[in-house]
Amino acid sequence: MASSKELLAQIEEVKKTSKERKFKESVELAINMKEIDLSDPKNRINEEILLPKGRGRDLKVAVIGTEEMRGKAKNAADFLYGPEDISKFVEDKRAFKKLAGQIDYFIAESTLMANIGKSLGQVLGPRGKIPKPLPPGQEPTPIIGNLKRTVRARSKDRKTFHVPVGTKDMNSADIAENITAVVKRIIGKLEKGYGNIDSIFLKTTMGKAIKLNLEELE
What we know:
Blueprint: H1 4-17, E1 26-33, E2 46-50, E3 61-64, H2 67-73, E4 79-81, H3 83-91, H4 93-102, E5 105-109, H5 113-124, E6 132-134, H6 141-147, E7 150-154, E8 160-167, H7 172-189, E9 197-204, E10 210-211, H8 214-217
Helix pairs in contact: 1-7, 3-5
């Protein structure tokens, strides 16, 4: 990974050159791949990566489960739904699409997964939001906590994809640690490792992008 001094300087430059906005800007990596056939789904990146220093913002997690599971999750989850809500979502797909856009991750009791897949898979699948299955009786709180610190890296069929690594107001050292975790995970999934990386840029949501030194990232 890049020397901490160099990477910290680049993070500080990204922050400094980004104008003040009326919203909390994310800090993200733009990863450009090469020499890889993304028409083959097995070559695509589709990873959920736990950021050691968190996202820097509050992510929304929904739980679909029995009354028992909802009771266990009530102090950790942002949305709670029962089995009866699945049919309601099917009846109004437009409303459910809007809801799915507001929720970052879904968790569902494993006994409900077949019904959810059949009824709501067309909405959740393309958005990468198929629920995480939990066995009946399992404590959902730790998983919810981890999901709130998780980012999704998805290349689909494009050689350029973006991964958030924090927010502009986060400590630069924390952002650097998150960057390390993301790059290490992505490289580990590529057949040629860094050989499949053309370039990596660091930027805020609406700010100027800075190219990272690949030789220093290895």
